[in-house]
Write a structure and sequence with these properties.
Strand order of the largest sheet: 1-2-3-5-4
Strand content: 15-25%
Radius of gyration: 21 Å
Order of helices and strands: HHHHHHEHEEHEEHEHEEEEEE
Length: 343
């Protein structure tokens, strides 16, 4: 239940939060044979968290259904045979690598399309389609592009007959369900939730849907709603990021929908070394504030234009355990040129 609650982005409040918290404790004690095998195959050694479920377990369980059939994931969760569990875990890992490769391909092609035909200043939505895109991955790419451009987004996979299945992700204040109803005459069918929805559409109607969707957003939002916002919970110095702080911080877990991970801010941060590009378009940053130095990850930051230091950085923290050594890991959420604090 803990895995389903986190992976399906159910609000982590009230009984959902308690069930997930206790479910993660069961996983830490050993839990399911298949999950132990999946942790072993992926190299997961630390205590499981909601973040671990979101970014490691959930994607691998889902990858089987996205790329082939969900049968392998179901068998993994049900088996009591440790040897069979390892075989299935390796199979899910292979599905996940294939999913990542397909995701990167679609993301690169979609980004190229946007560079040619999209204006962030005037276009209010993103709607793209292709006959070469895998239908099981378009939702992930829609989420990536929505976060990057802060635009309601639909990514559509078209079959050989020109019938498309699209997956959409939205920003706060724009209901995809209401948008689909408003654009009903341009699609075959559609439905879902305010922030995530799906649709079926004919290839020749994609441009009409894009225009209707854009018009809906224009009529039902204001300029302020369309500006991305990052809410900062506390300002700290890098030297304050200690294990004692982490112990208190973890009492707020599990983090997720409706109980978001707190976001911290530090000012006037310098680079100790050049950013390192890692696999998957990520950056590893060596940061310095005064005499204190630390490393941070900027996931999907490889395509972000970094201003000249010094920086003000927004980030979240987690516990990192490597070769028996525990440290505070930082995950960058945003970077801007350093600014003087308001008085």
């Amino acid at each position: 239940m803990a895995i389903a609650t986190v992976a399906d982005i159910v609000p982590l409040v009230n009984e959902n939060r308690l069930l997930t918290r206790h479910g993660l404790k069961v996983m830490a004690r050993g839990g399911n044979t298949g999950l132990r095998a999946l942790n072993e195959v992926t190299g997961m050694r630390s205590t499981p968290s909601a973040s671990h479920v979101s970014f490691r377990i959930g994607p691998r369980l889902n990858a089987a259904g996205r790329m082939d059939s969900p049968t392998d994931a179901l068998e993994l969760l049900m088996t009591h045979d440790a040897e069979r569990a390892i075989q299935l875990a390796h199979c899910l890992e292979a599905h996940n690598r294939a999913r990542q490769q397909e995701e990167e391909k679609i993301r690169a092609e979609a980004t190229q399309m946007l560079e040619q035909h999209f204006s962030p200043a005037t276009d209010r939505v993103i709607v793209l389609g292709s006959r070469t895109w895998h239908p099981g991955v378009v939702g992930i790419v829609a989420s990536l592009l929505m976060r990057r451009y802060h635009k309601p987004t639909f990514i559509i996979s078209l079959d050989e007959n020109g019938l498309g299945k699209g997956s959409g992700r939205s920003i706060p204040g724009v209901s995809l369900v209401q948008a689909i109803h408003a654009c009903a005459d341009t699609i075959v069918s559609g439905g879902g939730h305010d922030m995530a929805a799906g649709l079926v559409i004919r290839e020749e109607m994609i441009n009409d849907f894009r225009r209707a969707f854009d018009a809906y957003v224009e009529q039902n939002t204001n300029d302020e709603q369309l500006k991305p916002k990052l809410h900062i919970d506390a300002e700290v110095r890098l030297a304050e990021l200690t294990l004692d702080l982490l112990d208190s911080y973890e009492l707020l877990e599990p983090f997720g929908n409706s109980n978001p991970q707190p976001v911290f801010m530090s000012r006037n941060v310098m680079l100790s070394d050049a950013p390192r590009h890692l696999q998957g378009n990520h950056l590893k940053l060596s940061l310095r504030q005064g005499t204190h130095e630390c490393d941070a990850m900027f996931f999907n930051g490889g395509s972000v234009h970094l201003p000249d230091p010094p920086w003000d950085i927004a980030f979240t923290i987690d516990r990192n355990v490597w070769r028996g050594r525990t440290s505070v890991s930082m995950s960058i959420q945003d970077i801007r040129p350093a600014q003087s604090p308001r008085t």
